[in-house]
Amino acid sequence: MIQVQLPELPVERARLRVVALPLVSPFTTSFGTQTERRALLVEVFGAGLRGWGECAAGLDPGYSYETLASTMEALRRHILPAILGREAADPAGQSARWAWVRGHNMAKAAAEMALLDQAGQAAGLSLAAILGGVKQRIPCGVSIGIQPSLEATLTAIDGYLAQGYLRIKLKCKPGYDLQLAAAVRERFPTTPVMLDANSAYTLADAERLRQLDEFNLMMIEQPLAHDDLLDHAALQAQIRTPVCLDESVESLTDLRAAVRLQSGRILNIKAGRVAGLLPAVRIHDACREADWPVWCGGMLETGIGRAANLALASLPGFTLPGDTSASDRYFRRDLLEEPFTLAEDGTLPVPSGPGLGVAIDSAWLDQVTVHLEEVG
Ligand code: SMG
Ligand code: MG
After folding, report:
1. Could you give phi then psi for residue 372, rounded to 5 degrees?
2. Across residues 11-37, what is the average pLDDT?
3. How far from 104 is each of 26, 57, 242, 348, CA to CA, in Å?
4. Cα 188 to ligand 2 centre (Å)
């Protein structure tokens, strides 16, 4: 729970904006390849302020059922109309107004981020201060997509370690796992390394996954079905490598079930997946109580969503480096006047200015905007 009281503000207008930013290199997971980040941005206007939110959804429903199109439709038809022109409320009060909408977590989270940015600006509080952050700098990891060859993977790891990244996450899938782990361990015996399968396995693969135990991985993320907790519990009972859940936890309810069932031992928290930063804080609190370390996931965010991720990652339970990498890991030019740059010690700063605390490069934003619509 957040401890600060936020101002009650009106939302007079809202806009949906889509930006298209090419990725510096293609990003391949067990479910597909992405060469561009097409991000939906939400802008809320009220009390003379503009709040910005970024939606985590991608173009295709490979990670989640939510897509760019579904989130735009949910925001335009249901979520933003629930708050537009209503009496002033704080962000929790505003988000209660769309709580009747089932699902559409990424769409809700984008609107909530914009409201928190607006409220932070009004109160002169950084998002990190609002959420209960305690760190000024965030130790960062990097997520490396499936590469054309093992050698290419090793080269990519070399490059990121040289930049200072503190943890390597490798996407894997059946057949691109044991050899991958063996090759990586041979070349990098002590580097903190983990795998992310994005649900590419079934419980029938338990023996194969158990063979990963010998490689001393930090964890394996979401090996089994996106909506499963039972099989993950059965798998965790058979392997030593800690299971980290991602897709399977979309709410505090899911997390409580996962803890009870011992479906894993670690949680990747993404505000988009759990309907917002405020729900993410409650899940973080529950993980602390359950002794589950957490880390902040990523969805190839532009600097806007990245600022929010860094604020979230400043909370005390985020004890592991996450997928909060620097702007240049994704984009030649980010949406910000000052891109996020990795320090030599592998950390990024938590923005300390009011709200998201980042200045948007408006000329570049205009150039990469491919859609802009007024809602309501
Ligand atoms: O933002 O650096 C990033 C990407 C991190 O691997 C990453 N995200 O399952 O955790 C995950 C994936 C989902 C994104 S698929 C485009
Ligand atoms: Mg994942």
Report:
1. -145, 125
2. 96
3. 27, 10, 29, 30
4. 22
Rounded Cα distance between 167 and 173, Å, is: 20
Model confidence at 376: pLDDT above 90: no
Tens of pLDDT, residue by residue over 221-270, are 999 999 999 999 999 999 999 999 999 999 999 999 999 999 999 999 99
* Domain assignment present for 354: no
Per-residue tokens: 186: 């041979």
Which positions ≥6 away from 369 have C-beta within 8 Å? Answer: 17, 18, 19
Considering the domain architecture, whether residues 75 and 145 belong to the same structural domain is answered as no
The yes-or-no answer on residue 270 being catalytic is yes
The H or E element containing residue 65 is none
Query: Is 36 found in the same domain as 114?
Result: yes
Q: Could you give the CA distance from residue 346 to residue 137 in angstroms, rounded to a whole number?
A: 10
Q: At what angle do helices 150-163 and 178-187 cross, to 10 degrees?
A: 50
| Cβ 331 vs Cβ 291: under 8 Å | no
Neighbours of 240 (CB within 10 A): 11
Beta bridge partners of 347: 139
Closest-lying ligand 1 atom to the alpha carbon of residue 62: 15
Residue 28, domain extent: 13-123+361-375
Which residues have beta carbons under 5 A from ligand 2 (an ion)?
196, 221, 246
If one counts the domains in the chain, the total is: 2
Residue 50 near residue 128, CB atoms below 8 Å: no
Do 322 and 250 fall into the same domain? yes
Alpha carbons 82 and 257: distance in angstroms, whole number: 30
Phi and psi angles of residue 252, each rounded to the nearest 5 degrees, phi first: -60, -35
Q: Helix (H, G, I), strand (E, B), or coil: what is residue 369?
A: strand
Do both 119 and 135 map to the same domain? Answer: no
Residue 169 annotated to the active site? no
Kindly report, residue by residue over 327-374, the tens digit of the pLDDT: 999 999 999 999 999 999 999 999 999 999 999 999 999 999 999 999
Check: pTM over 0.90? Answer yes or no: yes
Pocket lining: 144 vs ligand 1, CB cutoff 6 Å = no
Whether residue 81 is found in the same domain as residue 136: no
Residue 5 lies in a domain: no
Give the distance (Å) from ligand 2 centre to CA of residue 274: 14
In the chain, the amino acid numbered 322 is G
Is residue 166 within 8 A of residue 346, CB to CB? The reply is: yes
